[in-house]
Specification:
By secondary structure, this protein is an alpha/beta fold. It is built from 19 helices and nine strands. β2, α5 and β3 form a beta-alpha-beta unit. This is ABC transporter.
Length: 564
């Protein structure tokens, strides 16, 4: 609420502060916060009363702080127009035997009309049906009612639908309602079920009068009033003032007039009416929020069903398997026999097949974020994997919305599925940008590779030495005298020993490579699982948590708006 409006509310209160304006301001602000939190989450049709209250409260408090709008409402033949004229002491509203007589609202203003013009414009009373109760002949007789705007409403049981609609509209705008009933129809079902019962939260601004009391024998009047009080108690209107009036006798409205004078003097009716409106709106909104905000936040850990389903849809098992194969492939290319390494490099790298980071070039890994290839070649999810992902998303929504009312549970489900269309690309990017742990060659690869080069050079040296001796003999030159290791010539030892050592090194490192490849696969799978879990957090869980947060805000706002 704006500071100007806050000032107007405070100025609207005079005398005995039975309605705290600051508390009323806080409650109206809380209703506004509820609407902000519920906007887009709940159906608009369910928020219409709250929107209407916020708009109506601001307008009413901004229009006039010196006037009290009181409406006379009643059924056909209840004599409310006669009562209206009796209070005004003029024939202002038409009275006759034809029913309904009052087709439009009439207004009588005590005091200058200028101050009430904007208020009457807001209520929609036509200028030709506005009257001023101000006369030099009255002296100070009417001064106690200065500030009263009395409305004579159409009959709410009129056969003309436009009359009923006008009554319903004005009943939502006035500050205080005087329900006029007569001895014949005071127990009519329409007045009790359609109107009085609906005003049980506005008992502070409700008054009931049994008009035409002169038609009852004096002995019957107490019995009729007691029966009417019983009906009012059944309508949850216990304690509402109940008066007996008659328009044909000036003394028959004395008590009613005194009540109006007190109401006008207090300047409290508008605040009481708004407080009752807030009560009504809050009661209608209570079913739209849970008793307590949900505390069960969806889990997206590695073991959660959503993460497992995302991992399956992202092809994490296939990528992890490719990591294991790539590790073996690269380890063999680095630790294998140098003479066959070139042939092994001709075989495709398993990760390259998936358009994932391949072997490092120049000691640096290829950054997938800078790769010109925008997407991986990870196999598309199968129908089973897509179905599992849909069920996992649904499970997250169901778990989060278990204790929520249907509108919020629906909003949670909608939020959980709101970004499903973005998931494939997001998962693909997450897989492509995950560090799979193969960007650096382990040190032991270099050590084993160096050993392989040494034994290979030894074998080549031995072979070359033997070839040189063979060539000299073929040319008839003196044969070389080979050094011996025991009975074997050293070149032969170098050749056969180098070949045998190379095979032994390769054979001994193969189990280590398999073990290290499985570890690399496990590390990559964990990293990929965390990456796809983050995608699930962003695309599924965060929208759900946003709805839960807004529900919490709405829940707290509704608690603040409740009467304290």
């Amino acid at each position: 609420m704006t500071p100007n409006l806050v000032g107007r509310v405070r100025e609207a209160l005079r005398g005995d502060q039975r309605v705290d304006p600051d508390a009323l301001i806080a409650r109206l602000a809380a209703v506004r916060r509820f609407l902000e939190a519920a906007d887009g989450q709940l159906p608009d049709t369910q928020l219409v009363p709250a929107h209407t209250l916020v708009e109506r409260a601001g307008t009413r408090l901004a229009l006039s702080r010196d006037h009290t709008v009181v409406a006379l409402a009643g059924a056909t033949g209840s004599g409310k127009s006669s009562l209206f004229n009796a209070l005004a002491r003029f024939e202002l509203s038409p009275v006759g035997v034809r029913r309904p007589t009052t087709g439009v609202a009439h207004a009588c203003v005590w005091g200058p009309l200028d101050g009430a013009t904007r208020l009457l414009d807001w209520t929609g009373v036509l200028p030709r049906h506005r009257f001023v109760r101000e006369s030099a002949l009255d002296g100070d007789d009417e001064s106690a009612l200065h500030g009263l705007v009395l409305l004579d409403l159409p009959d709410f049981d009129s056969v003309q639908r436009s009359h009923r609609l006008e009554v319903d509209r004005l009943l939502g705008l006035v500050d205080l309602v005087i329900w006029v009933v007569d001895p014949q129809k005071y127990a009519d079902r329409v007045v009790h079920t359609s109107y009085l019962r609906e005003f049980h939260r506005h008992r502070d601004v409700t008054l009931v009068v049994l008009n035409q009391a002169d038609r009852l024998p004096p002995a019957e009047l107490p019995r009729v009033l007691a029966d009417l009080r019983r009906l009012l108690d059944a309508d949850e209107l216990g304690g509402v003032p109940l008066l007996a009036t008659t328009a044909v006798d000036p003394n028959g409205i004395t008590e009613l007039r005194a009540t109006l004078e007190r109401t006008v003097a207090e300047r409290q009716a508008a605040l009481r009416r708004l407080a009752g409106d807030v009560d009504t709106v809050v009661a209608g909104l209570e079913e739209l929020v849970a008793t307590e905000p949900p505390t069960d936040v969806p889990d997206t850990g590695p073991s959660s069903g959503l993460t497992r389903a995302l991992a399956g849809a992202a092809g994490v098992p296939a990528v992890a398997e490719a990591v294991e194969g790539a590790y073996r492939h690269r380890a063999a290319a680095s630790t294998g026999w140098p003479l066959v390494r070139g042939w092994r490099r001709l075989r495709p790298d398993p990760l390259r097949r998936l358009h994932l980071p391949g072997p490092p070039t120049g000691g640096d890994a290829v950054d997938p974020a800078e790769s010109p290839v925008a997407a991986t070649s990870v196999p598309d999810p199968s129908a089973t994997q897509r179905s599992a992902l849909g069920l996992a998303v649904r499970a997250v929504a169901d778990r989060a919305g278990t204790d929520l009312p249907d509108p919020w549970a629906t909003a949670v489900t909608t939020a959980a599925r709101s970004r499903l269309g973005d998931l494939p690309d997001a998962l693909d990017r997450a897989v492509a940008q995950t560090d799979l742990g193969l960007d650096r060659r382990p040190a032991w690869w270099r050590i084993v590779g160096g050993m392989q080069w040494l034994v290979t050079l030894a074998a080549v040296a031995g072979l070359g030495w033997l070839a040189l001796g063979y060539a000299l003999r073929a040319l008839g030159l003196p044969a070389l005298d080979y050094p011996r290791v025991g009975e074997a010539p050293l070149p032969t030892v170098l050749l056969l020993g180098g070949l045998l050592a190379g095979l032994l090194v390769a054979a001994s490192t193969r189990p280590v490579v398999r073990w290290a490849a499985r570890r690399a696969r496990g590390r990559a799978e964990k990293r990929l699982t965390l990456a796809v879990g983050a995608v699930g957090q962003e695309h599924v869980v965060e929208p759900v948590r946003a709805v839960l947060a807004r529900h919490g805000q709405a829940w707290q706002a509704l608690r603040d708006a409740a009467r304290r």
